[in-house]
Design goal:
This protein is of the alpha+beta class and about 550 residues long. The strands form 5 sheets. It has a 6-stranded antiparallel beta sheet, with helices on one face. The chain has a 6-stranded antiparallel beta sheet with strand order 12-11-10-9-16-15. The radius of gyration is 57 Å and the shape is elongated. The chain folds into 5 domains: about 35 residues, no CATH class; about 130 residues, PH-domain like; about 120 residues, PH-domain like (Roll); about 30 residues, no CATH class; about 130 residues, PH-domain like, CATH 2.30.29.170. Helices cover about 15% and strands about 25% of the residues.
């Protein structure tokens, strides 16, 4: 609103206003500007048509009055003061928080150890908006629900709708928040300075009470027994994983057949417990759970009882002495739970332990009669006449027999390597005189085949005399077979093939070359006979002595 209407001293009434005919601008001044791309509002400085604002005129008049009235203070100067800039509360009091320390008591029912708990809290008062926030410090493994107790909000003071202000807070007072009574004990330094600057006198700070149950936990319980000088914790830390292992014979007299079994006794040094297991072999027909005695402490001597008693388990108060490592000596019989066990050997760790801790005890192993399952020799099943010995053995290894495993590396290295010998049949039948054979030894699978190669017009048809098979030596048994090898094939040697006797008369040049490459495994007599035969044939230039490959 312009103030030109008052230039003539007339009241602002209809008929008393005059329009300025010289004025040509009637627009309103701009109150929005842009700075660095941001729209910023600004307060108007002039009115419509560039006229001064009425409020600016009134303010200027009041300033002039104050200036004239206080001229004696300013000593006649024309100094004019300006009002301070208005700052809102959310800016002036931003991030200014009062912190008080308090506690509340929580009743505990149905507990013989405690009646109430003292739970400390922190009360935060935000001066920006007069809101409050209550937080309980978290104690690890306390078993209580701790942390945030009251979200930040304005807390009602009474039923009239009033809220708590900072003037209502002080030390050593009770603050009721939603039915919970918090007793304020002290505050931090900033809170104390702020309250004093506002003219509030704080009470004396009070100490935080101690929770009686937590305090009782710190008091050690009374001990009525003299503590033992032996430290079980030190024993566990130093002896954990260290076990004494003994091998023993158990004469099971309760068994139907009264047999002797082999067991393993383990003594755990960490807690002085003993475990007994029976040694079983696969497919022995024994119980698949070989535990003779589970891991436990074995009592050696019980305390005398004044009257007969019957209990299911012996407590430590009734035991006078337990078994210790010095009770287990190799060569002696130890009785555990009424069962005799003859200790005949132990492992290397056990020997070193006794040599270090009990050097007076002799831990030399003793010889025992091998009548138990562990020392019995595996019996080979009788040959059933079908296939090879390995095929017959597979019938006892699995319910569904599988082909025996072969040496793949040997087959790959000696593939297509064959040692050929010429032989004649040693027979009393005159018709067999002059029959010629070729004996082939296959290095890939140690099998032998015999092919008959008769002379022309002999009346004998050539063909396979023996297919590939392994030929056992005379005198070998089914339980312990001994098969022919290249070391047995010397020139002039006799080979017994299932009742037929063959005499080796010549060999291929490759035979001598191969056997010389493994001369450490071949007898010198065999090599000398081959060198002598093949050397003479090469000197006499006799091509007929070379062994011909049999045609399949």
């Amino acid at each position: 609103m312009s103030w030109n209407w008052n230039e003539h001293g007339l009241p602002f009434l209809p008929g008393y206003t005059f329009r300025d005919v010289t004025k040509s601008a009637f627009h309103q001044s701009q109150t929005l500007m842009y700075k660095n791309g941001f729209a910023l509002p600004c307060r108007p400085t002039v009115g419509i048509g560039q006229d001064p604002l009425l409020s600016e005129q009134l303010i200027q008049q009041e300033i002039n009055k104050l200036t004239f009235e206080s001229s004696d203070v300013n000593h006649g100067s024309s100094y004019k003061s300006h009002p301070e800039e208005f700052v809102p509360a959310h800016v002036a009091l931003d991030k200014k928080v009062l912190r008080f320390y308090a506690y509340f008591k929580e009743d505990v029912q149905f507990s013989p150890d405690e009646v109430y708990r003292v739970r400390p809290v922190m009360i935060f008062y935000y001066l920006e908006d007069d809101s409050m926030y209550i937080y309980e410090p978290i104690v690890e493994n306390s078993g209580l629900s701790q942390g945030k107790r009251l979200n930040r909000q304005r807390v009602p003071k009474n039923e009239r709708g009033e809220h708590y202000e900072y003037k209502d807070l002080n030390l050593d007072i009770d603050l009721v928040v939603y039915g919970v009574k918090y007793h304020i004990t002290h505050c931090d330094e900033f809170t104390m300075e702020f309250m004093e600057s506002e003219g509030i006198i704080l009470n004396d700070p009070q100490p935080m009470p101690v929770d009686p149950y937590s305090n009782s936990r710190k008091i050690p319980l009374p001990c009525h027994t003299t503590p033992s000088a032996f430290d079980h914790t030190h024993q566990f830390l130093t002896m954990d994983g260290k076990v004494l292992c003994f091998f023993a014979l158990w004469d099971d007299a309760d068994c139907l057949h009264k047999e002797t079994r082999t067991v393993t006794i383990r003594y755990y040094l960490a807690d002085d417990t003993v475990e007994i297991r029976e040694a079983h072999e696969p497919n022995s027909g024994r119980d698949p759970f070989p535990f003779v005695m589970r891991r436990q402490k074995l009592h050696k001597k019980l305390k005398p009882q004044p009257f007969p008693s019957c209990v299911l388990q012996v407590s430590k108060d009734e035991v006078d002495e337990y078994y210790s490592p010095k009770d287990f000596q190799v060569g002696h019989t130890v009785k555990l739970l009424g069962r005799p066990f003859l200790l005949y050997d132990c492992d290397d760790f056990t020997k070193d332990y006794f040599q270090t801790n009990h050097p007076d005890m002799d831990m030399k192993p003793i010889e025992v009669q091998k009548t138990v399952d562990v020392d019995r020799k595996k019996e080979v099943p009788p040959y059933n006449g079908f296939g090879s010995l390995e095929d017959s053995l597979q019938n006892c290894s699995a319910l569904i027999p599988k082909p025996p495993k072969k040496d793949v590396m040997k087959m790959l290295e000696n593939n297509n390597k064959v040692l050929c010998y010429s032989a004649t049949l040693d027979s009393q039948n005159p018709t067999d005189e002059g029959r010629r054979f070729i004996l082939s030894y296959f290095l890939s699978n140690d099998m032998i085949s015999i092919f008959e190669n008769p002379t022309r017009n002999s009346g004998i048809i050539s063909g396979m005399f023996l297919k590939k098979t392994r030929i056992p030596k005379p005198g070998s048994t089914v339980d312990n077979p001994d098969f022919y090898s290249p070391a047995d094939f010397a020139i002039g040697a006799t080979v017994d093939v299932f009742g037929h006797r063959f005499v080796l008369t010549n060999a291929d040049q490759y035979v001598l070359t191969y056997l010389e490459s493994i001369s450490s495994q071949i007898p010198s007599q065999t090599l000398d006979s081959l060198r002598q035969k093949l050397g003479e044939g090469a000197a006499n230039n006799q091509p007929g002595d070379e062994v011909e490959e049999p045609s399949e």
